[in-house]
Amino acid sequence: MTSTSSSLSSIEMSQLWGSYINDSALLCQLSHFSVHTDDEKIKALLLKCCELSKGHLKTLKELFDKEQFAVPYGFKVNEDCYLTSSRLYTDSFYLTYILHMSRIALQTYSLSLSYSSRADIFSYFSECINETGELLRTVTALLMERGEYVKPPEIPVPTTKGYVEGQHSLSGFIGKKRSLTVIEISQLFANFERNQLGMKVMTSFLQVSKDPEVKKLMNRGIEIATKHCDILENKLIENHLPAPISSDVGITESTEPTFSEKLMTFYTSSLIGLSVGYYGQALGVSPRRDLGINYDRLIHELLLFSEDAAQLMIKKEWLEQPPIAPDRDKLIHE
Questions:
Q1: Both 134 and 207 in a single domain?
Q2: Is 251 buried (19+), middle (13-18) or exposed (0-12) by CB count in 10 A?
């Protein structure tokens, strides 16, 4: 990366620190995936993903060392991933997981890039976007080739244009409801898909976890994700749109420990945080009142669940401290 003498901003610190944590966690999952597939194309893709994560971690560590920035502990393959355990997921799961992680990463990297003022940080996130875009293209093509890509609902192409007329376009409880816009459809569909994947992930974690408190958390997460899938799916069906059809995303019958309890709880907490953000985004672009009320309720439920997950991680000493601003009041009174 291009060198620079300016100091890191708080946002750059935040994005770099988070990137290191996420890549270290993802590498643990991808490493296990890569040793448990016989499909040559999928193995090649998984190994490529591993190399990308390793490259990111190496670059980030070098940058942290140069800045005298404490390298996050994150996750370690030899501590948080049990490569010799039995296979936990099917090939279809691997591809669907990479698809969603690529989509999430592209959004995260775009935000990181937009707030990067230093040339070397800008260059790093720009490269990450290019790599992830190519990865998304590859996994999408592979899913389509296998007939496993789940397409969003289709509606006729508009042949006219105009402006919204009447307040009924905002209604959703009383009187005639207007049809959903493509923006609202896309949010319902995308949030349904993410909840469905989250439900599968937590089910797999519940299956292999040996910690009663972690199992309790996963059980609750599955119940919430199932409920949210039903709500989102019903909104599509009510509007005479096809309900999303799940691809063959599968979990094996293995009950052997596959990932550390810490890693599984971290991923569950991360999924909660992502869902809150995506629901907030959906709330902002869904003017129909019934949709807004639904998203508001779902967010509130997730925030309560998020607090429980955070409390468990703190209790187990699994929640790593992000960079924090100096406590000026404490310093003044010392």
A1: no
A2: middle
